[in-house]
Amino acid sequence: xxxxxxxxxxxxxxxxxxxxxxxxxxxxxxxxxxxxxxxxxxxxxxxxxxxxxxxxxxxxxxxxxxxxxxxxxxxxxxxxxxxxxxxxxxxxxxxxxxxxxxxxxxxxxxxxxxxxxxxxxxxxxxxxxxxxxxxxxxxxxxxxxxxxxxxxxxxxxxxxxxxxxxxxxxxxxxxxxxxxxxxxxxxxxxxxxxxxxxxxxxxxxxxxxxxxxxxxxxxxxxxxxxxxxxxxxxxxxxxxxxxxxxxxxxxxxxxxxxxxxxxxxxxxxxxxxxxxxxxxxxxxxxxxxxxxxxxxxxxxxxxxxxxxxxxxxxxxxxxxxxxxxxxxxxxxxxxxxxxxxxxxxxxxxxxxxxxxxxxxxxxxxxxxxxxxxx
Length: 374
What we know:
Structural class: alpha+beta
Oligomer: single chain
Shape: globular
CATH class of the largest domain: Mainly Alpha
CATH superfamily of the largest domain: Butyryl-CoA Dehydrogenase, subunit A, domain 3
Strand order of the largest sheet: 1-4-5-8
CATH topology of the largest domain: Butyryl-CoA Dehydrogenase, subunit A, domain 3
Strand content: 15-25%
């Protein structure tokens, strides 16, 4: 399903505002500073994002948000990706906000104000396979006891609360029997081991040793997390595709500027036809991906129950485009592109992590193929 990709006046204003703010408050140099300080993200930047309403972009007005929609969220994600701005925004303001909104949770107000940060704890292996969840939640009296582990939880080390997918019935691989819990990240029996990742962001492995939860901590219905989880994951995948589009645009901008400055054999290297062809090909790929990302945002807003195909097309394309953009960026910069002192490496690292999070190219290509009857 294709929708209108023409930006509205509000969306154009949002992009201009976000671009201006991030260029000043969170240039790529801020990521380097955070990394060198051993800090995954700057709390001050997150407070400013919340103050400007970014944390509430998907939160209803009644819960303190602006409810601008998924296309607006995608615009913000794209602009963040272009400067590699690090924050818990995607985990909190997109994935958790969507899940809590669908479930009708009163905790949405904490998201809109920026007071509460969330992380989604779904995967237990090296790849994104939600239905393979084996972490058990056994009923004990009026509550539940959680035992198991979750791996590579984005924003998991610093989150205040966790959305945890647990198996209350059935076997790993089955869609039924899964329950989504909203629990305090400081709960007794929960251990969070921070993981160092190449993109210098917040990731953690979580271990649950008889962590208690109540029926009030369940989002939606017990044994039937799939409707809420599917919607929340689609929102996150759409926003992540937009961020990867921004990563591609940021890497391309650096490369194009270098082609216009670097001189070899008495002329700028951008005048060499072979490099022009490669740059033109990359630009074309970015433009096509931008259309896929915009379409995914529109479908998520208009017909979220039909968004799976559009979202997977966007995530698969954004993954491949970002890979091409950073590879071409490193190669066309030559030896300097391989050094830590040069920012292109940061784009490559974020592209690599973003490619795996919430489903890699193969995962989404398979969903597209299945939707098309292959």
